[in-house]
Amino acid sequence: MAPSRQRVRDPGRKQRILTAAAELSARRGFHAISMADIGAEAGIVGSGIYRHFGSKTSILVALLDQVMDRFANGATAVIAAGGRVTGSVSRKTDYVVAGDSPGSKYDKAVELGVPILDEEGFQRLLIDGEPGESV
Known about the structure:
The chain is mainly α. The protein contains five helices and two strands; from the N terminus they run H-H-H-E-H-E-H. Helix 1 crosses helix 2 and helix 1 packs across helix 3. The longest helix has 25 residues. The chain starts with 12 loop residues before the first helix and ends in a 7-residue tail after the last helix.
């Protein structure tokens, strides 16, 4: 009898599923995609997703957790560098960090001429003390 081999799971699969779900959601909307769509985008069978996530809703929760972690880490980095995180934009605001779908704070920053940074520019600001190119 041949020795049994224990199956080793791909440690990056869970993140690939989340990345696939995020990209598909951005293109088509979260409600318009299925587990099979996510699986195909991630390069696995749709039913294989259930080894990592109990439902499509749990994928959404995991994506939101990642976003909130990034926001919290960014805010912590700003505060550690001596900055302040505020809920409004004024002429006293040094920078606004904006993502792919900015809202009213972005519009206000444009109106007031406040420099707007994307995530890469924000990271440069934290590392180098100088912002990257404005959006």
